[in-house]
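Human:
Care to share another protein and its fold?

Assistant:
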Amino acid sequence: MPQSIPFQMGLKFRMLLLAVFACLLMVLSGCTGGQKPVVEPTTAVVVEAPQDSLRAKFLLTITDEDGKPQELDAVLFSVPKKRYRMELTGPMGIGVASMLWQEEGWVMTFPTEKMYMKGAGYMVGLLGNTSLPSVHIHQVAALFEGKLLPENYELLDTAVSVPECLKDEKVQMFAAQEKGGNRFFFAKKDSNVVWFSRKGMGGKEENLFFSNFKTFDEFYVPSSIVFERDGVRYLEIKIRKIARNKPFSMGTWRLNVPRSFNQVGL
């Protein structure tokens, strides 16, 4: 397997990679599935939990280009702005992907493909690669804290028409601008953000739909998040559980890469 050309990977593997990045994507990343639950990486040593630690369990449904859905169990371990660990598993509890982000760098492994990626900074993924896009890891993790909009945005005095998908909803429409200048739109129903939209990679319209708001351990979040690109659904998140201030084992913050694994994205 060549190590420097990710486009030579099969479609299935690229879709799984995309799921890793998109599963919590901010576009700014009770379970009904029958998979085995994701479990925390184990070790004999358990450390005291930081006061802002978070653990979220959720179900990912990925829809491929042929409209075929694929379900993955997922778990996120988060100490916001400091470190993150994410695990994806498929049928029979088989590990599909693992990601560890720390201030000094990040690494992602794909055990069944015997591959890995690595990098540094808060953008995780491959810059400039539309099939393996990079995402802002802090914004990704913020979804599970109920932070559905970019930080430090500014509302714009611009009229926004209600999109066709929200015609039957009584919503308020807003236009806004991120600190970096990127514009986006969102809709509120009562006090809840139910829709978020902006141009993504390649100029394609990216939409998120938030629904079924619930309180998980004091976090009020949408338990269902649907992702669409150019009007086509490609991902859905169903949150099962969020727990705060729980201790993580030391193994949570260790992710070894076997020497037999090939690096992609060089």
